[in-house]
Design goal:
It contains 16 helices and 30 strands. The chain has 730 residues and is an alpha+beta fold. It has 4 domains: 1-143, no CATH class; 149-254, Serine Threonine Protein Phosphatase 5, Tetratricopeptide repeat (Alpha Horseshoe); 261-330, Immunoglobulin-like (Sandwich), CATH 2.60.40; 369-729, Porin.
Length: 730
């Protein structure tokens, strides 16, 4: 293997950690196949190899080379024989690399257990018996620490006759508090947590909780640290410990924004289900919701029964700071699980670092998530407009490698005989629109870059759009600013007429800047601003605007029916004419807050443009988890807007000797007039399948629109409905 490969391995310690753990298991597996005489012919050679690892490679953090030497020690014992004492030393060496070098505490505990099984009298390597190594060792010994730090051989004992000093109720609590301070000074933070816990068991003191919180934070035990910091911040002021309380409050606020979240999704059917995280039982009522977990590698195990068959699950996950990781608990028959022996035999036969990696390579590659969705929506209103829109979408994403891409295709079938169509003497028409789209993104550390494009194709209109967006995670992913730019190129024509014969071109540039802030573990706030710059003639070539005599126009009432309009209007047919430049601006915000079993979300958008339209839109949704597989939500929306500066209920025209005088700007577009619209409804989503990776959603809304200064119509009622089916394939 060349030097570039060595450097690559150093940059990728995840497989190395797994290889070290698997190497230890392999060594443990081969002990049963060692020579029956179990001589100690190779003991001296193996002990020299172990010593050289901790004199040369380990202090230099050359963990790849350390692993290679320990594999050689393992091979030496396999080919000849080693005593149980030396075999245990090899296992202790591997576990020390795991805990002290690679920070794989849970694996280190398991390997230390193998070492203790091999030789119950085995000890830690002198000079490498503190900190994370010592903590993992103590856990493997089931809470019975050994070595020079032991007081009277057991931590629960302390020198007899000790009296409690002033301010302390028990000597035991004081003694363990002092031991915790010593461990903190030695940077043995795991041991510090243990001693502080013993002290609190004898006497509940806020100062001890503060010490335990500080050590727990440094030891990576953030959940414990958060709980202690919160207790100190609440109890400290009442005891005059204002500085400690303030410091604890600051650390509490910082840590709770960074602590990883783990969602354990239970199987659909299983009796006697028991789920554990790092050996601690997770209550079943906490499954499916967010759990705070310590950063680093965590081990998830589960067991249950399906019928008379025992089913199990086991998985290691690595939780990064601020991340939220979801794990589907997929129970399988115990007899069908891949046993460690397959890995052990592979490692026993591996002859190179590359082969070591291959032994644990299965399942360590990038996870690929594929999502496919199908949506069918429909709309109908009292203005004789119907819309039917089927759509399909798919996406492929690698959460571990930080990339993804997707595509969608929508078809709009619109049929209408609305009042403005009838008023223009146009027959009912049906039109189909096709909307393809693609998108993709790539993450570079905390930076994310995305691209997208799409089109809208109609018989008389073609729209092409493309965009780029970027975002970056700051302050431990609690603040994420983003910036996006979009470009649109539209060609508007007439149905049945080629664009070469008649068309207008419309250009659009848009910029969106936003920031998302994780206010606390349950609240996310998003705010942003959008600017759209549009040039080109957007006047509809089919829309005719009725004209009236100057004396009659002021007398026209709101909502005058089309028959009455035809009776008093002038005879000329005048096409709509809009300004050829429009600038739109909007500011928006969203607050989403998670409660115990529900989430509410409120959106607000304020809008203004250079045509004089001003609007406000408020949208609210409250999602309730009524069942682990069912989510239900009500939905409300309110939209209010003013009309454009040039909007008029009735436009006046005049015939003079010079010809027909018309308003330079005129429109019959109802959406440019003053109006108010309200909608409300509900939705439900069902999660299905053993891993809840199938989803079916139904939602519907009733929409009421009031037109405040329009011809032909005063109000409109409509209904909107959607059916969404989706599947996640991991």
């Amino acid at each position: 293997m060349n030097r570039s490969s060595l450097r690559s391995c150093r940059r990728a310690p995840r497989w190395l950690a797994g290889a070290a753990f698997a190497l230890a298991l392999a060594f443990g597996f081969t002990r049963g196949t060692a020579h029956a005489q179990d001589t100690s012919a190779n003991d001296a050679e193996v002990e020299v190899l172990i010593s050289s690892v901790f004199e040369a490679e380990y202090p230099k953090k050359q963990f790849v080379e350390a692993l290679e030497k320990l594999q050689l020690a393992s091979t030496t014992c396999q080919e000849g024989s080693c005593s149980a004492k030396v075999r245990a030393k090899v296992l202790v060496a591997v576990a020390t690399v795991l805990a002290g070098g690679l920070k794989q505490d849970q694996d280190a505990v398991e390997v230390f257990k193998l070492a203790i099984e091999e030789n119950p009298k085995v000890e830690l390597i002198k000079g490498f018996d503190k900190g994370a190594v010592k903590a993992a060792w103590d856990k493997a010994r089931k809470g019975k620490p050994t070595g020079p730090a032991v007081v009277d051989q057991e931590r629960k004992k302390y020198p007899g006759g000790m009296r409690a000093p002033r301010g302390w109720k028990t000597a035991e609590a004081y003694f363990y508090f002092q031991e915790a301070l010593k461990a903190q000074d030695d940077r043995a933070f795991g041991l510090c947590v243990g001693y502080a816990t013993d002290s609190l068991g004898a006497e509940d003191r806020v100062s001890t909780k503060y010490l335990r919180a500080q050590c727990a934070e440094r030891a990576g035990k953030w959940v414990q640290a958060i709980a202690d910091y919160e207790a100190v911040s609440e109890q400290g002021p009442g005891l005059g410990m204002h500085e400690s309380a303030k410091g604890a409050k600051d650390r509490f606020d910082d840590l709770r924004g960074k602590v990883p979240k783990l969602v354990l999704r239970p199987p659909a059917r299983a009796d006697n289900l028991e789920v554990s995280l790092d050996g601690d039982r997770v209550p079943n009522d906490r499954l499916g919701g967010e759990l705070w977990a310590d950063p680093g590698q965590r081990r998830i195990t589960a067991s249950g029964k399906v019928g008379d068959q025992t089913v199990t699950f086991e998985r290691d996950v690595t939780l990064d700071e601020g991340a939220t990781v979801s794990v589907d608990i997929k129970l399988v028959p115990a007899s069908s699980r891949v046993t460690d022996n397959r890995i052990l035999k592979c490692l026993e036969e591996s002859k190179s670092r590359e082969e070591l990696a291959k032994c644990i390579g299965e399942g360590t590659g990038s996870a690929i998530n594929v999502k496919v969705g199908l949506e069918v929506t429909g709309y109908y209103d009292t203005d004789n407009t119907q819309v039917f829109s089927p759509a399909i979408s798919t996406s492929v994403e690698s959460p571990t490698d930080g990339w993804g891409f997707g595509g969608s295709f929508l078809v709009d079938v619109v049929s209408t005989a609305s009042t403005d169509i009838v008023a223009s003497a146009s027959p009912r028409w049906t039109e189909t629109r096709y909307v393809p789209g693609i998108n993709g993104f790539k993450k570079f550390g905390d930076f994310k870059l995305g691209l997208g494009g799409g089109a809208s194709i109609e018989p008389d209109y073609l729209s092409i759009a493309a965009g780029i967006n970027a975002s970056v995670d700051l302050l431990d992913k609690r603040v994420t600013p983003s910036l996006a730019y979009g470009f649109g190129y539209d060609i508007q024509g007439r149905a049945g007429t080629s664009f070469e014969t008649f068309s207008t071109t419309i250009y659009q540039n848009s910029v969106d800047a936003a920031v998302s802030i994780v206010a606390d573990k349950a609240t996310v706030v998003t705010a942003g601003v959008t600017a759209i710059f549009q040039t080109g003639d957007t006047s509809k070539p089919y829309r005719y605007v009725p004209m009236f005599d100057p004396e009659i126009a002021p007398l026209i009432p709101v909502g005058l029916a089309s028959a009455e309009v035809d009776r008093v209007r002038n005879g000329e047919r005048v096409l709509e004419q809009l300004p050829t430049d429009r600038q739109r601006y909007a500011v928006y915000g969203r607050v989403a807050h998670r409660l115990e079993s529900s989430t509410f979300r409120i959106d607000e958008r304020l809008y203004i443009d250079t045509w004089g339209v001003k609007a406000t839109t408020t949208d609210g949704k409250w999602l309730f988890d009524v069942h682990p597989n069912v989510r239900l939500w009500p939905h409300i929306r309110a939209h209010l807007q003013t009309g454009a500066d040039f909007w008029q209920l009735a436009y006046a025209s005049r015939r003079t000797s010079a010809g027909l005088e018309l308003p330079n700007v005129r429109t019959g577009d109802r959406e440019l007039g003053p109006l108010m619209s309200f909608s409300g409804g509900a939705g439900v989503r069902f999660a299905m399948g053993e891993q809840k990776n199938w989803g079916l959603g139904l939602n519907g809304d009733a929409v009421y629109t009031r037109y405040l200064n329009h011809l032909f119509i005063l109000e409109r009622w409509g209904v909107f409905g959607a059916v969404v089916a989706e599947v996640d394939i991991e």
